[in-house]
């Protein structure tokens, strides 16, 4: 039961880290779109394209990681519930 609790906490931690990463990528994209200190004075479209690709990839990666961690947490919660139920039924 302790192992499944630790695994659940790790999955929740990963979800929080992924959500924070999505927020950072989104904020960076909005900052780049607003033009606030985007290029350090340069107006190079290839640089903008590279930034957009990188931030979009970061956002998608964090979304996928969040979804995987969510499913892990859900599965571990179910496993922990079944484990507790079998323990209590064995005691009765």
In short:
The chain is mainly alpha-helical and 92 residues long. 87% of the residues lie in helices and 0% in strands.
Structural commentary:
The chain has 92 residues and is an all-alpha fold. Helices cover 87% and strands 0% of the residues. The chain contains two helices and no strands. The protein has helices at 2-34, 45-91. Helix 1 (2-34) runs antiparallel to helix 2 (45-91). The longest helix is centred in the last third of the chain and has 47 residues, at 45-91. The protein is rod-shaped. The two termini are 18 Å apart. The model has no long low-confidence stretch (mean pLDDT 84).
Identify the overall geometry: rod-shaped
Rg from alpha-carbon coordinates: 21 Å
Distance between the termini: 18 Å
What's the total helix number? 2
**Strand tally:** 0
Low-pLDDT stretches are: none
Main structural class: mainly alpha
Mean pLDDT equals 84
Question: What about the largest sheet?
Answer: none
The H/E string reads HH
The percent range for helix content is over 70%
Q: Proportion of β residues?
A: under 5%
Characteristic terms for this protein:
2 helices; mainly alpha; 92 residues
Summarize the SSE layout with pairings.
Elements: H1 2-34, H2 45-91
Helix pairs in contact: 1-2
């Amino acid at each position: 039961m302790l192992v499944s609790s630790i695994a659940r906490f790790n999955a929740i931690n990963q979800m929080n880290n992924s959500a924070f990463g999505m927020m950072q990528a989104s904020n960076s994209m909005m900052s780049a779109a607003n033009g606030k200190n985007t290029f350090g004075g340069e107006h190079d479209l290839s640089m903008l394209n590279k930034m957009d690709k990188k931030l979009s990839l970061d956002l998608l990666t964090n979304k996928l990681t969040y979804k995987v961690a969510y499913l892990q947490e859900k599965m571990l919660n179910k496993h922990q519930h079944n484990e507790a139920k079998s323990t209590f039924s064995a005691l009765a």
